[in-house]
Write a structure and sequence with these properties.
Helices cover 45% and strands 9% of the residues. It is an alpha+beta fold.
Amino acid sequence: MKLLIENFRKFIKEEESKLDKGALYQLGEPSTPLATYVAILKKYANDPNFDKIAAAGQADGDAANERVTVTPATVTARSLTATQSEIGSAQSLGDQVINKYDATKTALGLNGTPIAMSSKSGPSPLLVYNGKFILDGHHRWSQVMMVNPDGKMLIDNVTGPELDNEEEALKAMQFAIAATADQVVTKPFEGIDLMSSSEKAVEAFVLKNVSKEVLKLLVVAKKIEKPSKELAAKYIAGNLPIIMQSKGRFSREKSMPQAGDSGVSQDAVNKALGTGKVNFIKPSPKDASRYIEQPNVARKKNK
């Protein structure tokens, strides 16, 4: 009886994991909301049928339509627009007022330009679609925006013949993460949302928490005339309206790509997209039937 129950549960689990036509239709339909699209990928990313279809981009009749180019570039921080709707105050403002991890000095351009703020893997470019829309790196960008909105930032610029807007770029990135990592992880937003704050609140926070070191750095960077808490508070709070003009429209928890947390490096995802093998445009079982997997297309399996 125990064996029968275990086998039945295994059968149910396998049946539930099968990629159905409705899910494929939604993945190929441009009108599918990003949050719904990501939810589907989370459900089927580890499905063997999805794996075959997801890697068949060069077997779908057009070998180049899904080839995404990622190239380094330099842009002004204030010229960028967020896609994520929430941005944490702790990372964007808290770190800046005490120069945590040398973040303020870097954001001010005093460690060199173009600016590449640190991530878990070290100094990293922002991931940006079409030179404008941030796909990944919102907190790194916001740190610069709060103290140096005219600073020049290093980006990896994402473009492709089938990417018509930032939502399609986010979908392609999430699809590529699913294809290379066999899972899609998104992270919930935590803490106080900077994008819902006020200049008065930011000014009060800076007055209370800004360090003497940061005051000196702001003077060196010619942002304030003298090491005054009041001047620093007014200057930093004055940058809040600039960043709020660039507020995104997608939820971090439901939509935003997190390659590292999903189990694959962003660089590996970019390289996979560059081959044109990531089949994110109208994926179909017919594509998989024409696809023969090559050794260099092997996907990382999370055990």
